[in-house]
Structures
1.
Amino acid sequence: MRVPAKVYHINRAALMVGLALVLMTGAEVFGGRAARPERKLKMEKVSYAGWPNCIKLSNGQIELIATTDVGPRIMRFGFVGGQNLLKEFKDQIGKTGGKEWRSYGGHRLWHAPEHIVRTYSLDNTPIKHKWDGKTLKLTQDVEPETGIVKEIEITLDPKDNHVKVLHRLVNKNLWDIEAAAWAMSVMAQGGRLILPQEPFGPHPEFLLPARPLVLWRYTDMKDARWLWGTKYIQLKQNPKVSKKQKAGLLNKVGWGAYYLKGELFLKRYPYIPGATYPDMGCNTETFTDDEMLEFETLGPLVKIPADGGKVEYVERWSLFKVKVGEDESEIDKKVLPLVRKATKASQ
């Protein structure tokens, strides 16, 4: 049967309107989804926290701020206009120079094992930076105590809330050294660290140990801030408790997260089978007191060749808005899908 021309024109107009709505809203059609518009990656020089020479990276949804007046340090990580997931020590930010080591807060790069001289080498002076349109590179001068140059490279995904943070140690000595890259995120008060346990395996099917759990002399496993679960180890930061706590483990699962006020800071990092890790075999460590919580990850202990040899270590950061309770079923339901999502996005 022939369709009247008037009806045909009406239906065609309706179809065009429908297609326009799909393109504007990204609604699903025929099992597909309209492409999400790419966010624009933006780099700008700003003043932040009393430091006049800072670099801000943003994709319109999340942002990072690194200072070049000291460091290398990432001092802010969060949603645009939202809370800073990283700690800022109010009595230290904005300061430069001097012969006193300062934490400042934020995210920094150390080299392990910890030693009172080499670990606390000062980083109170200006650093170099380079932006190539995609990656921000922060470079410290040679540490006089160690002969090591520290570098951090930050690559913010323009489409998603993901960041690649590459840490590099360069050996400028005339002799080989042994060290491990040590990525240190100082987290803001009031949050909770979530670390996955190894998957459960029944006895006698599994006879060998799954991973080391390392305790310091001042670790108190009865402290109420620890939540020793079946699937997860959690540590709460409490501004009212000054007693120091620290523990480390070999995290083969390859992720950990810090939850604070409806936002989840997810880190993913590698585990290398057969590698030697510092501190009795730790690639993950955490420390807390009344002021902050440190979420630390470590690369393997390796020999770094003399005269420019280097070692690189990568963390992948993601940020999500989500409510996560302390119950392990909540973590299974809310966090594990985000880990899978972040892993898929970076492949």
2.
Amino acid sequence: MIFLVDEISSRRLDVYLNEKFSEWSRSHVQKLIADGLVTVDGAKVKASFKLKGGEKIFVAEVDAAEVEYQPENLPLDILYEDAEIIVVNKARGMTVHPADTVRRGTLVNALLYHCKDLSGINGVKRPGIVHRLDKDTSGVMVVAKTDAAHLSLAEQIKNKTATRTYLAIVHGVLKDDAGIISGAIGRDKVDRKKMAITPDGKPAVTEFKVLERFENFSFVECKLQTGRTHQIRVHMAAIGHPLLGDTKYTARKNPFDISGQALHSHTLTLTHPTTNRLMNFTAPVPDDIKKILEVLGFNF
């Protein structure tokens, strides 16, 4: 697989790959590099090689298990589709791509059935996947059908010309009507399945705006200036307002019927890779979040 490195500051190659492919162990990544199966800008390097940003990495991973990832006739909520891209409204509870522990029922399995041809830049496990949503985050995301479209969309995300907004219900009542949360995000030093604000993490910035305040909760809109793993979940928890239903980043009780964090990818704005037309997509608020807001007293 071939992919471009996003903005980075003196990050080790093995650390970067371990964070990008969380299902790979650190030792597996280091073995791939030691065996010469990883190149940076066409050259074989050591695991300790420091990335600066913008490099092209090639990983020639041989994984027999990848051939088991088959197309599946699963429901897809398609918002838009043409020869270059497909925009979907991902359901809460659907994993985006296969991993060692999840090989069926993913968005990729569904896309392989529906589209047949997807961008191959991210390899067999992640065909077409330019950006991801957590399993329990619903909403709009774009998938590339061609390599050219993939590179264009990845560049837009890197340069922040593609914008995304999210809707979330958080614990507590925010005092400020709007604000900016800035805190570098990296893997938690104690629990490797979690992310955390850490000095050696990647720069991360989230804008938020309060849409409605309730007695014990707030309804907020979040805009990503960067796209780190679990970014909104980590940042909102860091300011004392974790997401409702997010068992990974808060122990606060969830009194409502929702499985996973109350987070929805609401809008996506991008420039079409071929026509250069500015396109806006919106995924409606899902029923589970809508019902909670109605109980809280929000009027749609």
3.
Amino acid sequence: MTVLTPRIGLVVLARPQFDTAFAQETVDRAWRQLQGLEAEFIGTPDLLFDADAVKGRVADLTRRPLDLLLVLQATFTDAVMTVALADSVDAPLFLWSFPEPRTGGRLRLNAICGVNLAAHALGRAGRPYDYVNGDADDPAALAEIEATARAGAIRRKLAETRIGVVGQHPAGFDSCRYDPAGLQSLLGVSVEPIDLSAFFERARSVADGDIRAIRDRVASEISGLDGLDQDALAKSLRVYAALRRTADDGKFAGLAVRCWPEFFTELGGAACGPMGMMGEDGTPCGCEADVLGTISTLILRWLSDAPAFNSDLVDVDVTDDTAVFWHCGQAPVSMADPDGPRRATVHSNRRLPLLYEFAFKPGRITLARLSQSKNQLRLVVGGGEVLKRPLSFSGTSGVVRFDRPAREVMDAVIGEGLEHHMSLAYGDHRPALRRLARMLDIPALELT
């Protein structure tokens, strides 16, 4: 997997009537801090004093798509240059002003007043923006800029994203419905249906030699393959090969798969383990042809630079103040607790392989879901800790303590009528998710 590296355009605005030496010193300190971020910068930290100077930078700023346009308000300026930048550069806009010492003497920068003036003009022009007023070496200011840049990178990647849908969601699973035109309009994501029968033919045509190589990979990750029905196991491994080739041929960033009942009744092998393997590869798969769940998992995959998991909330213990996230046996294997067993197993209801079985490793997690509950598109955001606990149920699962009482989280999930799938990834990625919701102009629903 590759690290998500945002591309940030940098412009510094100032007026020569203020203390430009102090302004440049402040900007240079900010620039040193910015260079510590995992980002590519377009632009230089020199002060620009007039509209012509700003206009001369626009060509560089528009040569390649930007994930963020960062305007350092070094001193007071009027709003002309900022509005011109917003009109010329197609990127989320972030304004950074710097506080200054209250010396009782000259107002050397007056930067926040410049941001205030720009914000009013941008608001009247209908141009969205974010801002921070913080010292040049303030970690909180840097964190806000970084989160916004990462959200901008996700926004850009979504506009380049293709999702394949293998079959249709099962009857009664309204939580897996999707509007392809709406997704294209809002996110830029394109969705391509894939006939289920044609996919099965592709799986059946996988060569035996390819199956042996895939089996070797699985055997290096989990134990117990020899105890399974070997014919059904081979059919399941063929599913992985077909998923991998479908994603590669179609240039799909993720796949939403009608994983039951036909994989069991017509093909004779489970899609669960193969979907987990795809997630480990960096190509998330959504169960039950859940397109929005797949996109949510993909967003977390990009933010965490690690596999993410499209899961079910299956148990809440209000006495223990914990919940269990589970889904059959298709979590990526890197989520496994290294101190616990990792086994091959069969589907708990259909009794066919291949499924993985392990408890999740402990650690901080982020929960996310692009939700259509109550007919309103929202981005659900939550957080918690996976605890070091024994396996709760067969398959893959983890015991989670939320950042608010478990009963309140359950009440929110049911009361808001949220979808039964929630994406999960390790790390705290909530700041970037909140910024992404603002960029997409949709509400963020705080689950925790």
